[in-house]
Predict the structure.
Amino acid sequence: MDAVYTKLFMALNAQAVRTALAFSGAMVYDQPLLVERWRWAIFQNIGLPAARLRDLHGDRRRNLYAPSHPVGLLLLETDSGGYNKLNIMWWAESVATSTIENPSILAQYPLLDTEPGITYWWQEMVTTPFKRPVASSGCV
């Protein structure tokens, strides 16, 4: 199971890196409703699954959840204050800046292959930010 948890963790990190790049590149910091939409989606699609995965993983691989990883940095934010204290702009800028300064981070966390025509939720957030409301599940 350890290998499965590690693979899932790496997939979450891959999404976290690209989400941070997409959010910081979307230039919506001056639009509170869009910032909140991104915060909710990131929390639901990355933060909560990562916290659950960390709990399942236990102490075996605690280093995987260190703040040196994009998901670890997000967990640091949510662990210290939950959703209400999550500063998504700081998190996204931190991860995006690190990735821009060190492009090998993208190779470190490759995206999983998707079926043709399927897009990741963060890709939808960039291309259609106002077209659909955020579902109660946080999924876009």
In short: Residues 2-127 form one domain. The CA atoms of residues 21 and 100 lie 9 Å apart. The chain has six helices and no strands.
